[in-house]
């Protein structure tokens, strides 16, 4: 009888240990699931930020082209002595400043 009782006690103890391990594994599984969900959200955020950076890069390229055009026109006007052209230069400089403000906001 002592052997049978010992075997039963050991069996119950093993079942208790297995249940505790199962509970711990369930907790670990829940944590891993939450980490996976956070990783997915972070990945989506990164994708959104990459898209915004691409859009910003496109906007900067457009502004750069406009700025080059304005600089060419300004240089051409500076080479002439006409008073009306000087007013045009002043207006172009104002437009340039406005474009810079719009692009960098």
Automatic annotation (TrEMBL):
Positions of transmembrane segments: 86-104
Q: Provide the T-SNARE coiled-coil homology domain boundaries.
A: 15-77
| Compartments where found | Membrane
Q: Which residues form a coiled coil?
A: 46-73
The membrane-topology field of this record reads: Single-pass membrane protein
**PANTHER family per the record?**
GOLGI SNARE BET1-RELATED
What's the protein name?
Answer: t-SNARE coiled-coil homology domain-containing protein
